[in-house]
Amino acid sequence: MNPTARKSVLAIMSSQLKQYTADHRYLLEVVTQQTGLAEPVAVELDEFYVPLLKAARKGPLLPIDGVLVRDWDPDNRRIAPGFQLGIRLYDLEGIRFVRVRCGHGNQSNIWGLDFIAVDRKDYRRLYKIALRCRRDSEPPSNAPVLPAEQLDLLWKNTIGYLEAPNLNRIKAYGGRARRGVLLTGAPGNGKTMACRWLWEACRQRRWDYRLVTPDNYRQARAHDTIEELFSVDRRGIVFFDDMDLALRDRETVHETEDQAVFLSALDGINVHEGVVFVFTTNCSLDLIDRAFKRPGRIDLVLNFKPPDERLRRQLIERWHEDILGHINVDLAVASTEGFSFAEIEELKNLLVMRCMDSGDWDWDWALKQFDVNRSELGSRPRRHVGFVNRRNNGDEIPF
Ligand SMILES: Nc1ncnc2c1ncn2[C@@H]1O[C@H](COP(=O)(O)OP(=O)(O)OP(=O)(O)O)[C@@H](O)[C@H]1O
Ligand SMILES: [Mg+2]
Fold first, then answer.
1. Alpha helices (H) along the chain
2. CA-to-CA distance for 61 and 68, rounded, in angstroms?
């Protein structure tokens, strides 16, 4: 392109850009005049759009420069703005925001002319609400497959305990507004999955929840902020996942300062509304410190066992219908005796990987491959669980 042609192309582009930005500024001014939002900030909501608009209450439609073009499209009435050109007001938890739509001409990018706007003073709050709405729209996580009585006990002692009518009655009768539940059992049988399921239930109820990992604990210990780990602002559940060494018998691991700190933080918290502590560990019950097991600290112990035939069937029957249509479920149930839930799920992964490769659903192959993979792992490395410190030579020592 010769320099003169290039110059004139640049001049056209720059005047188009100026027009575009002027249009955008004009629309924001219209928003201020029409709605009273003092300092509107334009936003493209992207994946927040649907959850936020679903939660908001639709307000009136307003014209732009005397023009309003309605849209009768019956699809997605709930979230569609109902117009092609104009402004619609929305209200969400007391925050007013607008959808502006005024795309015209052949702009390849209309986002400057089709946007959401909110007053600067409400911007951060709207963002926080949008985060919550998006989180709430995620599908709830699956409950673990457990014997019905165990699932029921787990629910009643956690979410059920904190439900307002129950908690009020417990308090009225002088009961404790706090409860401790310990989940024990061999790896891969649903302890962490049960925690995920419960914190999902907390989230849906807008209760507080907090997950404490051994790493979090270690850091809090270093900064002397252990008490904060145990406290919740509102009613809620604190999950302590994989807390093996902190709970172990002081006789066998020799009394450590760490356990004393842990127990005193547990006893010392101020319960405002109601709190449930859920601890998980691989440690067998007889190895757990008696001081920790006393009522008031731990009120219920649930042992997560590997699945029996009925539970294995229940787990496998939750698999995708394409898999179920191509395997013999009775055989799958029979051939997984002694497997943990996680191991059975791994068989499913192998089945799917094989199918992607060969197009066949080959259960025998998956079983064999599982054995090969396991044997190649050799003696499985010990997981680092609980509160451990590393010496320079790599040995683990309790705190
Ligand atoms: N009871 C169960 N029902 C359904 N799926 C399960 C169950 N238990 C385990 N799984 C599957 O195995 C995976 C691992 O289980 P999870 O992390 O809950 O084990 P865990 O008991 O916490 O083990 P660890 O003691 O090693 O921490 C889960 O994400 C899930 O896919
Ligand atoms: Mg776990």
1. 3-35, 49-55, 123-136, 148-156, 159-162, 164-172, 191-204, 214-222, 226-230, 244-247, 250-253, 257-268, 290-293, 309-317, 321-324, 329-334, 341-358, 363-377
2. 8
Please answer whether residues 267 and 151 qualify as being in contact, where contact means their C-beta atoms are separated by less than 8 angstroms. no
What average pLDDT does the structure give for the chain? 86
User: What class does CATH assign to 148-303?
Assistant: alpha beta
Condensed to tens digits (0 to 9), the pLDDT of residues 193-247 reads 999 999 889 988 888 898 888 888 888 888 888 888 888 888 999 999 887 756 6
Write out the two tokens for 74: 């019956």
Q: Which ligand 1 atom minimizes the distance to the CA of 144?
A: 3
Q: Beta partners for 184?
A: 281, 303
Query: Would you call 231 helix, strand, or coil by DSSP?
Result: coil
Q: Which residues are placed with Cβ below 5 angstroms of ligand 2, an ion?
A: 191-192
Fold entry, domain 309-377: Helicase, Ruva Protein; domain 3 (1.10.8)
Is the per-residue pLDDT at 349 higher than 90? yes
Please name the residues in contact with 21: beta carbons below 8 A apart, sequence gap of 6 or more.
112
In short, whether 145's Cβ falls inside 6 Å of ligand 1 is: yes
Q: Hey, is 152 helix, strand or coil?
A: helix
Residue type, 8: S
Q: Which atom of ligand 1 is nearest to the CA of 241?
A: 27
Three-state secondary-structure class, residue 320: coil
Digit-coded pLDDT (tens) for 153-203 = 999 999 999 999 999 999 899 988 899 999 999 999 999 999 999 988 998
Residue 391 has a pLDDT of 31
Domain boundaries defined on the chain: 7-136, 148-303, 309-377
